[in-house]
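Long-time lurker. I teach an intro course on protein structure, and each term I like to show students one example going from raw sequence to a predicted 3D structure in token notation. This year I'd like something fresh instead of my usual example. Would anyone be willing to generate the tokens for the chain below so I can use it in lecture? Attribution to the forum is fine with me.
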Amino acid sequence: MRRNALLLLFARLVSAGTTLVMLALVARLRGGEALGAVGIGFAAGAIAAAISDLGLSSLLVREAARRPDAAARYLGAGLAVRLVSVPFLLAAIWVAGGAIAPGNGLVVVLAAAGLIGQQAAELTRAVFIAHQRMVIVSAHATFENVAWLAVIVAGLVGGATLEATLSCITPGQPPGRTPTRCFSGILITGSIVTPPAG
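-- Reply from a regular --
Happy to contribute to a lecture. Here you go:
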């Protein structure tokens, strides 16, 4: 039990640490206004993630532990609820972000969408938690956060706009515009690679 608790604590510390480093870089390289827009996006994303979850992560842990054979069905239902609710929540964030941070509404939405996407992975991790697979949970969360930070650092240090950098980590990318491709493009050219049309 102590080992499992330490693994989960490690994953949470990595998550908090990567967020701290990212926010410090945004403040240092893009200024206070950009930091404020990202902060608003993170706050809105945390609220939207909680609303779109509807407590399903906790329910999924309990039910998957009770009935492992039904875990996939519960996971699918949880993802379906998010799929339906997230577009409405992002639209509300778009309107609020434009009103609160004029000129930075896209940054607010992209920061929120990235956080909502990361929180959607919590449903998958809930199944592993139910089956006491904390090594997988910790490794998944750690890899996700370190990869997220690497893309952000590469974009910010490489001189890409904050919008372009955040779009690399936002779910629902067009074909060919994956975080890996964005990351490679940032490293090679200092800008975001957009695949040719057609």
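Some talking points for your students: The mean pLDDT is 79. The first helix runs from residue 2 to 30.
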